[in-house]
Every structure is written in C-alpha cells, then in structure tokens.
Amino acid sequence: MKWIGALLLLSATTWVGFELAKKLNDRPKQIIQLKNALQILEAEILFGQSPIIEACENLSRQLPEPISLLFKGISEDLRKHPGNLYDIWRKNLDSFWPIVSLGVNEKEILRQFGRTLGQHDFTQQQKHIHLALTHLDRELQEAHDYQFRYSKMVKTLGFLTGLLVVLLLI
Amino acid sequence: MLGDASVLFQIAGIGIIVAMIHTILKQMGKEEYAQFASLVGFIIVLIFVINGISDLFQQIKSVFLFQG
C-alpha cells in the first residue's frame, strides 16, 4: 500500500514536470503558426481583397488546430452580431488565450495588431502586419532560448521533487 | 533505539536528492534557486535531527531526574 502511494506521488510530480516542459516546447511552435497566420492574412488582404469575415474563415480552415480556433471564433462572432471589430478581436483573444501555451507578450502584440486591423489602406495595413511579424520574431527567439534552457531542467526537477517528497513521507 | 537505522538512510537519500537538485539548478544558471533548495533540504534534515536529539534528552532526563 505504501509503495503504491509512493509510486502515485512520483508519477504525479513527474507528469507535472513533463506538462510544464510541453508548455515550453509548444510556445515556439505556436508562435510560428501565428506568424503563418499573419502572412496568410496579409495575402488575403492584399491579393484576395476579401472582407475580414471571409479572411478569418479561410484562415481557420488553413491553420492547424489551436490557432485556427481564434479565427474561427472571430468569424463566427462577426457573423452573429456585427459590431466593433476591435471589441470582438479582444474578446476572442481573452477566451482563446488559456488554451494555448503563449505568453502575455504575444497577446499584447496581437491585441495591438487587432486595433489597427481595418483602419488603414493596403500599404499601411501591410506595414502593420510586418510590424507584428517583427515583434513575433523577437518573441520566437526568446521562446527558443527558454525552451533550450529550461525544458530539460523542468522534467528532471519534477522527478527529483517527487523522489524527495516520497523520501520525506516514507 | 539504536537499531532503528532507517532514519539515517532517509537523511542520506534526502542529501543525495537535494545535491542533485542543486547541481541541476546551478547548471541552468539559477544560482539563487539552487542555494534556496539546499537551504530547504538542510532545514528538513535539521528537523529530523532535532527530533532524534530531543528523544535523547528525554531519555537523559528520565534517567537522572526520575521523570517520565
């Protein structure tokens, strides 16, 4: 009985460690997906000249799972009750953020980008998209750095903490 | 009293694991957390040792002062 409890505790802390490492590993991937999303959005605006609802729908079809939910939510909200785009953008960002591994900086970048969306002509809009892409590039580098430094450490620390607690309670 | 050596092994295990945590944290450049982890390990071991020593003092008191 004692050993079963010890094993359970150990596996729980190890799992926590792996979960944290997964969050660290997912962040660069999702930033890259966000960058892809902005590039597709740029193409939609400049070449397709499609309205924002259709652009968001196309984006949600083309992108992989976690990121596509943001654009799906925005297009659905816009269809249901068309209003201020920035309000809808911000509301969707808030509800979208807990399900991804991204940090607050990326959220702020996207929020500021959403405020410029639909306010300018093509060239200005393109400049704003490039600005957001540059910011995301910087965040991507930082995320890679964090991943490189901490993901292994978090895994090992989870296991070791479990071992320590088991030893204390035995 | 003396036959119960498992506490020694427990303290040794805690020491080894705290040392490993310290090494890993230091490798990753988190010196202050490493120091903190060692300090916490030391305090935990200290609590164990204080328990043992208080047992010893109770024994001495019961031998010489006819108490307990």
From TrEMBL, chain B:
Pfam families: SpoIIIAC (PF06686). The keyword rRNA processing does not apply. The keyword Metal-binding does not apply. InterPro entries: Spore_III_AC (IPR009570), Spore_III_AC/AD (IPR025664). Keywords: Membrane, Transmembrane, Transmembrane helix. It comes from the Bacteria. The chain crosses the membrane at residues 6-24, 36-54. This is Stage III sporulation protein AC. It comes from Aquibacillus koreensis.
